[in-house]
Amino acid sequence: MPQPAPPAQPGPQAPTAPKPEHGVSGRQRLAASLWPPRVSRAQLVVALLLFVLGLGLAIQVRSTSDNSALRGARQEDLVRILDELDDRTQRLEDEKTRLEKQQSELESSSDQAEEARKQTQEKERQLGILAGTVAAEGPGITLTITDPSGAIESDMLLDAIQELRAAGAEAIQVNDVRVVADSYFSGSGRDMRIDGTQVAAPYVFKVIGKPEDLEPALNIPGGVVQTLEKEQATATVQRSPKIVVDALRPAKRPDYAQSSSQ
Hints:
Elements: H1 26-34, H2 41-66, H3 68-71, H4 75-108, H5 112-131, E1 136-146, H6 154-166, E2 171-174, E3 177-179, E4 185-186, E5 192-194, E6 197-199, E7 203-208, H7 211-218, H8 224-230, E8 234-245
Antiparallel strand pairs: 1-7, 1-8, 2-3, 2-7, 4-5, 5-6
């Protein structure tokens, strides 16, 4: 007779998930513990300090990047820039000395009226040069800018004028136009204008001043010459013991202003 099968042994019971307490699941309890965040006062202070620190680092990095042009300059370029600053300081000192000498001459001259007349005439000549109403000559440079692609903008020529003035230029002429304090540049490429007068490339700058100051001012790193070269233009500078600036501007009489001296 066949033997009856032994009764089945109960196997291990599978673990059952814990029943949620009061109808709230574990996921809900986790979410409730994370939001809203519980931030202590100390944590807020630390977060604020970290924000301020990060902002300060960002400003410092930006300031450092602004000076990257000088940081990447060669030693001889930095020396040349320092020499140019020293020269500007010396020019200001010389001007101060000259004015003090004029004052002393006026105070000590036996014929103060005659001395005042001579100084007035000299001042008139100087103002005429600055106003462009009289011709001038003296040492300086000739800056020639070629623009085969017509890519030069008016602000590039204006930058060159500003650099030259900062370096001590006393009289400037571009092609046949006298450039003075109120001159303006407009247009670009084939329609470049100075004070409304059309000028065409090559642009020839005749500049009277100290050549040793004028030429380095144009060749500083990131300066006029390098900017023009990026536009496929060329700029050549030639020193000369005698530059003649003979383009003149008409003298203008004021319509309303009168001298207040009696």
